Amino acid sequence: MSTSTLSKLFAFAALSVAVATAQDVPVTGTFPPTPLASKAYAYPTGIPYKVDTDTGLIRGGQHGYNQCNSTTEGPTSLCQTSFITSIEDFCLWGPGNPNSLVADTEGEMVAWCTKPGRGTRLIPQGALQGVQFIKTPNYIQVAGFIRQELININASDWGGEMDPHGADLRGNPMGGLIYSEAFGGGWTQVVEWHNFMGGNSFCFKACDPNKPDDEKYCEHRLDRIGCAYNAPNNAKNGTFESCDGENQDFPGVYTVNGQVMTYTQPPEEAGAITTMPYQPRVPASSNCVTYTSSAIYTGLPSPSIAIDIVATPSAGSGSASGSHGASGTRTGGAAGPSSTSNDASALAISGISFLGVAFSVLFLA
């Protein structure tokens, strides 16, 4: 969430308190006693039915539930326990209702997954158009292209960001949990993560809680500049691959002439982000293995809606937001994967340099 969104949330809180006082109705406040990122549960036996049980807060109660099994699996599941382990086994956050805007539903997102058996919704066949999974020393990441209308995101929505914080520390979605088997020792609860959805593309990074700087690699405050800057990658439309990789630079941290610099995202009231002072470095990858999607995504349902062939944004399309939240404020950037080149000079002249800025002008104005 941006600073302006937080300011407006505080203003709304003050107004709510004033109204409640006038009507003699108790209000417990804006923030929960325990932030979502501080709640720990062992999978699967230690998870409560709902993680977010706080009442009286501005955004209401948790939309879905966290205890998910075969009885909850299917197209109406409201499971908000999600997973990311490999190219064959990951989830994305998506709306519960068709044709939704990310900015309007980020607090109520549910898990859409590639692997049956965990009580979630399943990503329909043909929705994933290209995926790169990468494992680095400090995090795992999946990025790629998707027919987003098949997971209930409006086809023209440039989307936004989900993370375990949010302006009120309850997370987006509220109560959303992430687990992984990629970090050793069985199931590990991922404390720091971010997932950008929109523009028919996505990125989802989960940072190893056993390693330092997980909150820095999974930065959640740069929600207006999307995957190109938060999760640089080599995803290619039509390619499904799993790789080892180097760590990226911390999102928002870059080097110019040997000097380490930190980018500060401007507040939303400042208008569109029309220029960026740097181009992100795409980490080198190695040991890549290519897959056929039909061989790794088995057991997925057929699409529930007929789809036409539409243009998918290029891999260098950058990110921008084209939707408003319920409060009328923009909530983040869409998830355009980055250039397909590892070379920094090639990246500098890729679509990110120009299209990323153009999309910011169009959708963040």
What does it look like?
With 365 residues, this protein is of the alpha+beta class. The chain has one domain. Helices cover 15% and strands 20% of the residues. The protein contains seven helices and 15 strands. The protein has helices at 3-22, 102-105, 214-217, 226-230, 293-296, 344-348, 351-364, and strands at 81-83, 91-94, 110-113, 121-122, 128-135, 139-146, 160-162, 177-180, 188-189, 193-198, 201-207, 240-245, 253-256, 259-262, 285-291. Strands 7-10-11-6-5-12-15 form a seven-stranded mixed sheet.
Essential attributes:
7-stranded mixed β-sheet, 3-stranded mixed β-sheet, disordered C terminus, disordered N terminus, globular, 365 residues, 15 strands, single chain, alpha+beta
Summarize the structure.
Helices cover 15% and strands 20% of the residues. It is an alpha+beta fold and 365 residues long.
Shape: globular
Instruction: Tell me the strand percentage band.
Output: 15-25%
Can you tell me the number of structural domains? 1
Distance between the termini: 17 Å
Largest sheet: 7 strands, mixed
Question: What structural category arises from helix and sheet content?
Answer: alpha+beta
Low-confidence runs: 1-27, 309-365
Average pLDDT, all residues: 81
Q: What is the succession of H and E elements?
A: HEEHEEEEEEEEEHHEEEEHHH
How is this fold's topology laid out?
Layout: H1 3-22, E1 81-83, E2 91-94, H2 102-105, E3 110-113, E4 121-122, E5 128-135, E6 139-146, E7 160-162, E8 177-180, E9 188-189, E10 193-198, E11 201-207, H3 214-217, H4 226-230, E12 240-245, E13 253-256, E14 259-262, E15 285-291, H5 293-296, H6 344-348, H7 351-364
Parallel strand pairs: 1-8, 3-4, 5-12
Antiparallel strand pairs: 2-3, 5-6, 6-11, 7-10, 8-9, 10-11, 12-15, 13-14
Keywords: Signal
Protein name: Mannoprotein
Biased composition (Low complexity): 318-329
